[in-house]
Amino acid sequence: MTTEAVAISSFRVLGVRVDSVQIPDTIQIIESWIRDSGRSRYVAITGMHGVSEAQRDPGFKTALCAADLIVPDGMPLVWLGRMRGFRSLKRRVYGPELMETFCRQTGDKYRHFFYGGAPGVADMLAKVEHERYGIQIAGTYCPPFRRLTQDEEREVQSIIEAAAPDVLWIGLSTPKQETWMFEHRDKVAVPVMLGVGAAFDLNTGRLKQAPAWMRENGFEWFFRLIAEPGRLWRRYLLNGSGFVWNVFLEALGIKTFEIASNPHDR
């Protein structure tokens, strides 16, 4: 795949494509898509959890692998990329940091729409980012914690279309946000959509972030597990163990994993 800004190479983990990019590359690509102003494109910011979910849910795997860019938000993917020769992968593409860096570097250049989060969080995030970096706010929307009705879907699409954002930030968590972007890629005329999950809560200060040394060395999972054991124990202890085991089997050639096709011409 090539873009106006960056030539992208990739590798696969359990059948899931991971693009070998860093935050500066990702920002260049996003800006090139906005300038191109063609079809809607979306960025999946995924880690061990996303790759693990893709093994259990073929529909989600299709949505994840259809992303125009899949960035490694998790040190296990960075480590695997380095082992396969992608030495340029120095750090993870951490969703909250990507949002902050993009807003800081581009300032009031683009119009932003924030979709997701608990009631009031999208508004809070928009206010915070505007005060920090002067970004233009196109709009916000906090959906209910259920599938929208057809009337609600039409209303949301109309709101987003009328707001005419350049960037649509989605905070629904994995796998909901990737599925939402996949389903709406031909329904909303937005140059770029990004699924950033917990960035809505982390960048507003509603959730405390792990110390930088933990985030950069693969220990963020432990910090989050201690903070939310009831919600995350299965993800990190059970799913995490399964991920490591499957990677081991794949590395030895004992097991192969189906590769989801990408509908876009890369």
Number of helices: 12
Major sheet size, sense and barrel closure: 6 strands, parallel
How widely separated are the two ends?
Answer: 4 Å
Q: In which order are the strands of the major sheet placed?
A: 4-3-8-7-5-6
Radius of gyration: 18 Å
Mean pLDDT: 90
Shape descriptor reads: globular
Series of secondary-structure elements, N-terminal to C-terminal: EEHEHHEHHEHEHEHEHHHH
Summarize the amount of helix as a percent range: 40-55%
Q: Give the number of DSSP strands.
A: 8
Strand content: 5-15%
- Regions with pLDDT < 50 over 5+ consecutive residues? none
Multimeric state: single chain
Structural class, by secondary structure, is: alpha/beta
Per-chain topology:
Layout: E1 10-13, E2 16-19, H1 23-36, E3 41-46, H2 48-56, H3 58-65, E4 69-72, H4 75-83, H5 95-106, E5 111-116, H6 121-133, E6 136-141, H7 150-163, E7 167-171, H8 176-184, E8 192-195, H9 199-204, H10 212-216, H11 220-227, H12 229-251
Parallel strand pairs: 3-4, 3-8, 5-6, 5-7, 7-8
Antiparallel strand pairs: 1-2
Helix pairs in contact: 2-3, 2-12, 3-8, 11-12
